[in-house]
Records
---
Amino acid sequence: MEILSIAWAFFKVGIVSFGGGWSIVGLIKHEVVPRWLDDEGFRSLVAIAQSTPGPIALNAATLVGWERGGILGALLATGSVLAFPVLAVASAGFIASRLAARGRGLDQGALDEALRTATLAMMLMTLWTLRPASLDPLVLGLALASFALAAFTKLSPLWAILGAGAAKAAWDLLAGL
Amino acid sequence: MPILGEDSGRPAAGQEARAALPREPSPGELFRVFFGISAVTVGGGYAMVPVIGRALEKRRWLDEDEFYRLFARAQSFPGPNAFTIALVAGGRLAGTRGAAAAAAGVVLPPFGALLLVGAALGRFGQLAPVRSFLAGAGATVPGLVAAMIWKIARKRSWTAARAAATLGLAAALALLPGLTLPVFLGAATILYLAERRWKS
């Protein structure tokens, strides 16, 4: 049952989706490439997920589910990635009161710092996993240009994504003439 | 019963301040506000959270301080930031039904949009110019991740121990791709205990 293994894969992703967004894109890649998508297909999907409304992790889940199992797959993948976060929020009050009852309150400051370190490490892993796969100068140039634009200007990353797509489409079109 | 128990750390003074606010939103109103923001905000949680904060503040449902307190708590849960802040703020304003309504408002617009995108890709995705466009768009991904890391790393309050832990954990995660869950959860627990000890 491919759809069930998609659901399981995204449920696992949901468990460690602290910080949301980019921190878990690397893990999503481990789960879906090469089982359900190839490397280039996954990169395109992430770019689409980033340039449509909504959280990137959620969008990536929806798209992978859709690719592999239509609307049912999309529903299942999206629901699975959110299942653990919902459980965590719903049980937090209970767990906090149990901890307090034992005189061991949660140290919010320490938790924040621990999660900052851990999610930044996850992002570095994502960067390593998604490092440019080819030495094509155009591909490397687009990666560098989008870094500069997103890191040093206030422009939305959307413009980097659309611009890079248009540049590559124009380049390939001209090369084909 | 709110989704986060009454013992969730809100001081009694907060309740008095709250009484001065005009009224509490219904689940339906929460759904509409979160749906509207989610439908038009591109760029994920980092883009959405400030917009959500301003929208709740403008309606005088939450003041800015309280919103960012809730956001700090939302960030200690797994899940997309926009989704967890919807659960936590929705729960705080209108109980479990408020949490469900706000969260549904966040999830539904992108879900619908992506079904359309998925259908369009299925129809046109094999055309040469579309494939080129997607390949170019995909090429930006490492640049965008690196930029996000750069921005977060610049604002982080670094210590030698935190830097070493960040790099060590990143290396472990990269070397053990099949063990992300145990490595991440184990490391987060150790880091929590270490941070608590360093402070005291």
Note: Chain B has two domains: 12-124, 156-199.
---
Amino acid sequence: MTDLSTPLAAKARPFARLRAALTAQPEPAKRVQFDRPLLPWLFLLPQLLVIFVFFYWPSVQAISSSFYLEDPFGFGATFVGIDNYTDALGSAEYLNIAAFTAFFTAVVTAASLGLGLLLAVKADAVIQGRGPYRTALISVYAIAPPVAGLIGMMLFDQHIGPFVKLAAMLGWDMKVGIDYWDTAFAMILVSVWKQVPYNFIFFLSGLQAVPASVREAAIIDCRNGWRRFRTVTLPLLAPTAFFLLIINITYALFDTFAVIDVMVKDKPANNPITLVYKVYNDGFRGNDIGGSSAQSVILMLVVLVLTLAQFRWLERRVHYG
Amino acid sequence: MHRIRPLDHLILILGCLFMLAPVAVAIMTSTHSAADIHVNGLSLAPGGHAIETYATVLSKRGGFTGEVTGATMAMNSLILGLGFAIGKIALSMLAAYALVYFRFRFATAMFWVIFTTLLLPLEVRIMPSYQVMSDLRLLNSYTGLILPLLASATGTFYFRQFFKSVPDELLEAARIDGAGPVKFFFDILLPLSKTMMAAIFIIMFVYGWNQYLWPMLMTTEERFFTLMRGIKQILQVWVGSQIPDYNQAFALAVLALLPPVIVVVVFQRWFIKGLTESDK
């Protein structure tokens, strides 16, 4: 729900288009267009107002306050150059959280992409019951991350959680909310659960876009199912997969905030948290506005790098047609 | 050449179980009493306390000020979901119309100004956004809840793509018949866009309803709490209680998840189309 609402759907792919628009000669969207000097501005005005007030203004403030040390009581700010950045990047705590964020993102992305792909391939292959399977598998898409977090908390609850009992049978004394890695395990499971439907939807529609003639030719040429999947289906899905990769990374970095917030219940002390949670925690609880802003800017840079990766992919996509 | 392949079905059934079992457990357990849940754990069979639990959650005044009920929170979630979806469609259709159908100076620049917002999610600029809202005195208001979420170009992007796919001949014909931009928009483009609007409405409604971080920061007064905020609240109240109100927490979760799930399942054709085709 990225903003590509998921919010995400729109989040990454547009950049590829943006770049295409940039590199190509600016050509009008339509052969015929209206020629009125004022009307288009009138239509653009509401959107532009909202964007300037709620996007550009705060973004500029984030960048500028990242260079200041703000008095927590609101009495002015001192320019400190890049101290906020060096403080953040130099602290062991920040680096630990960054390492956990990277691990968390990698695991959540890999697991939810893998499961989504597996289920999409199977749902594409069966004839009977395709509709019900699809409905069942996409319905969880609509569940909000905090609700997913709450249900996860219950399933991992010390008193009533079936997962804890199951783990106990296997000799694993699971203490979610107390033990660092047990909490991480629960957070990852809930985050993956929440994201599988999204990947499933995109992989399934990617698979169904493969023309019947290509499928039939592949079946004739290659009888081994696994090899056919690897050499025909997977390359055809590569553009979808790459698009989803970026979306999933963004999801794991940002949209899992609610899952984490619900599951650590304001006690981040011994629990794993991600970088976005730290931005929030330092800014709103620690009142460290400069430090929190610097961390925001670092995250903005991460998003920019992801976007550049998306640009590069545009060129590679040409090979796949 | 198609045969029934048991392994494929087995994997799909396991996948459906993995996805749906937690939801089923939440719904079923919410119909048991708190003491029952405390003793017997989660349940997959319906219990006998559904009506009283949901009545309590919907009508009991909770929180610190005693101002908020589950019904109020559901109403606020609905206002946020609808307000966001309608606002998004209105703003982005107009902007996309201007970008696609008009020749004017700085059109390319405006395109960039608008689409740059796709680069940065709200989460990375929450602190300064909060300060801006506080400067504008919009904390604890529906305006403050909805407007900042509209500051992104997703909807504009969807509609721009769609408008570009509308045949040019329509505009040529309309102009020969003497239709101006406003008439063309309302009489031709709007009726053509109905499916697209429905798809975007569903996606945006779910997105608005499910918002968590922004409403949590923006609303300190409990009468503006949404269901998502209520979920955080109910977990905070638990700390230290003897028998936590598991049943009420589950009931609240069910209230929060059912409307978007129903919308997505009922309108899944439009929803999938809107989600996957907009990037073609």
Note: Chain B touches chain A through 110 residues (CB under 8 Å).
